Amino acid sequence: MIKYKEMNRFVILGVVLLVFAISCQSPGNSSMIPSEGIAKKYEKPVLNLIDFFNKNAYDPDTGVYYSEICNSGERMSPKVYNVALSRLIYGLSFASRLDQSYIEKAETACKFQLSQLTSRDSIGDYFISYFDVKASEAGSSKNLDIWQQAYGLCGLVELYRNQPSDSLLSSIHQFHDSFLTRFYDSEYGGFYGEYDLKSGQVSGSKSLQSLIYPVTSYMANLWLADTINRPKYEPYLKENLEIACQNAWNENLGWVNMTFDNDWKPFAPDSEGEQRLTVTPGHNFQFASLFLRTGTWDFLSQNERQKYKDLGTKILDITLDKPIFQGKDLSQGFYSEVSVLNDDVTDYRKTWWQHCEALIALSLANGKYKNEISELEEFYFNHFQDQDNGGEFFYLDRENHPQKKELKGSIGKSIYHTIEAVRFLSERTTF
Length: 431
Prior knowledge:
three-stranded antiparallel β-sheet; 6-hairpin_glycosidase_sf; isomerase activity; AGE/CE; N-acylglucosamine 2-epimerase
């Protein structure tokens, strides 16, 4: 029989545990509170990158970040691009683990994006390419591409994952539903790459990007955060994986197929006139990461997850054996462009985003590539980061000299790729 004092202690303990449990619940319908952090060794490059844009691109009067920023930090235009701003929102939201003021800036940028970089028609909401702050004028293109529409959701979803709210989730659902209506192919599955506001889906616009971008830019992350509504996303995630697995990997060449017919038949580079068809190694790495992300996707069967894991690892092994590296290992990075048919390097520059995609893919392979990750991340952070002016370079040349004429901020470049890579690397780093 429990004595009165003992019973009282149980009651108090129960109340404390209840209060703790309530305090740990997220608002809205998301049960996700991000538990991962940023590994100590990545904090400095993350802060350096964000500080560059806070110092040079951020306008405290409007709370927005201008997009086109040169090597030294000068603003090159009064334009704010949808993709660049959305990717900034992503980076600020995740990096708020280091500085809580980042989440406030992300929220303010989100409000600007939703008010100035969106429009609506009879189908629903869509993103506008850019807004000119000085002219107070938005872009007016009638052709929507899947890159800008998918990555328009990128920052909103990561902000929701870190700072859940019902109103933000409602906006995300509206854009997601419109995205499906515009781009989803109800006949052959998957997504078209372009949508014309007057005539609809653009025939012949299917590509590797229209398979990958909806998943990697926002839908996989939204599935992770919006736990109650996961059935909204799972059929599309599952179908895109199936199409990609069947049609997007060229076994004979060891490279991804980049373009497809409407029925997902890949364009075959086999004629003399197509000898110069090229591919970027970064797309091989990005494609591998698509499959390696599926390890925790419980809506897939165990056999499916194993199949995708095996394919992702196979793609990495083949890509790491390609003649794209300056040395015998990854310590000097890899080149930007290769001929599909003979593996000849066609561009010896080294591109920031491709190295980020490689780091993500390698980090997802359950510890198989520890040495390769160590070599590549040391190269990446030592060479792409600008220790003098801040931020990071777009290109290095063959000898690893930064190409300073390329903008550090542009239509799609801000802070996203590096911070996304840091996120995945940190999840597999011992703190």
